[in-house]
Amino acid sequence: MHRPYKVEFNNLSDIKTMPPNSCINVLARVESVEDIQDIKSEKGQFKLRKLHIVDQSAVCVELLCCNQNADIQWKENDIVEVLDGKVKDFNFLKSIGTTSDSSVKQNPQTNVMLCKKNQKFQR
């Protein structure tokens, strides 16, 4: 599906300098997929799946997919597009979280070349 507007994506390397709760748009390749976890918190119960993603900056970041995004059948080397993700910071470890406002797509149509497994991107 073609967008009528242009989306500007951040490099995953940008996350180092972004404050917590900043909005982030990323297009990356799934490096690894963890099993779904059922989490109980003060706000209720939800599903969580952690993906490790990498982009052309060759930086790997943890993507926290919640609820319906956790249910997606993610596989290694899938492409993931996240719009309006949130930068998370836990014990100085940055990650990207999804919220109800986030858009997460599996294998969107794109002409962007991403880093292949075990290969550094060359500019």
Helix run count: 0
Biggest β-sheet description: 5 strands, mixed, barrel
Q: How many beta-strand runs? A: 7
Residues in helices, as a percent range:
under 10%
Q: Going across the major beta sheet, what is the strand order? A: 1-3-4-6-5
The helix-strand sequence is: EEEEEEE
Mean pLDDT: 87
Are there runs of 5+ residues with pLDDT below 50, and where? 115-123
Tell me the Rg in angstroms.
14 Å
Distance between the termini: 28 Å
Structural category:
mainly beta
Shape type? globular
| Percentage beta strand | 35-45%
Descriptive notes:
The chain contains no helices and seven strands. With 123 residues, it is mostly beta strands. It has a five-stranded mixed beta barrel. A hairpin with a 2-residue loop joins strand 2 (37-41) and strand 3. It is globular and about 35 Å long.
Based on the model shown, name its key terms.
globular, five-stranded mixed barrel, 45% strand, mainly beta
